[in-house]
Amino acid sequence: MTDNYTLNTTRSYHTDRLNSLGWELTVCNALHAEGTPIRKILARDGSFGHLLYDHLCGLLPMDNISSIIEIGGGYGFLMKDFLDRDGSLRATMLDISPLLLNKQRETLAGFGVTFEEGEFLESDPAILRGCDLAVLNENLGDFPTLVNVNGNIFESPRETLDPGLKRVVGLFDMYGLEKPGGKVFNLNIGALEAVEKLCVSGVPYIYLGEHSCEAVAPDPLRSFVRIDSTGNPERIPLKGHDEYTIKFSDLQQVAGALNYTSIRGLFVDFIRVPITDRLRFILASGGRYSDEAEMICQFVEDLYKYEYLILIKQ
Description:
Blueprint: E1 6-8, H1 11-17, H2 27-30, H3 37-40, H4 48-57, E2 67-71, H5 77-85, E3 90-95, H6 98-107, E4 113-117, E5 133-137, E6 145-149, H7 163-175, E7 185-187, H8 189-200, E8 205-211, E9 235-238, E10 241-244, H9 248-257, E11 260-266, H10 277-285, H11 291-305, E12 306-313
Parallel strand pairs: 2-3, 2-5, 3-4, 5-8
Antiparallel strand pairs: 1-6, 6-7, 8-12, 9-10, 11-12
């Protein structure tokens, strides 16, 4: 069977062309600096990693976690915050980008951290041995995504499919993923394989966070927070590469089949923002009246667009 699907990959961008994350403002990076307009609207002022760590303390036995790996650690801000909270953690940073690994070394200087350069999907599973918690924050969209896959592949004889499509059909069959009913669809195949690898390795606790294609704003805010979730991973055009939003229900399905329970929520669960009259005005106006308002509007919308998934081994 011949299809016009493509594989979106960011590998060459991150290994050869990435020179800054300054233009790609992640939620984590947006909360790094103190005293910013964004930090001032929070219910509790804090950096991303501190707020996330404190949230995890209410959900996981963080006092029993002694070893942590972060896969794709950006500038290292999240891990620095975790180590600020618990300096006894044995930490490993695994990243495909040599530039970002060097940034992480700078950020985490003075902490006992191990740094590994490599692609997670190709890495030796032994790197996960003895790891209590794995963290992948705001980078699942960088993993390979199959784009424009014909939904009719599920009705076609397996022998007519190329190896890539056979892998797709195999994942759907193995994990009982919801089929698209003949529609053309995109598949976060790299993110699915990453979750599969983590769960098969038996990591006790896994945290995943990324821009979701399934997120929905709560009813009281739907007229203010602009979210158009299609349920199909959507292209995000960025400098030098494309990323795709994540279908978290597929990741849950894979993890559940591999004996993990899950806790799923929105970033706003742990990055709380009081909806004041000023903020309602900013959101209603789309942040058009100033650079600060535009920045705040984008940030608050992201808190409802980004989901997290915590996986717990049974």
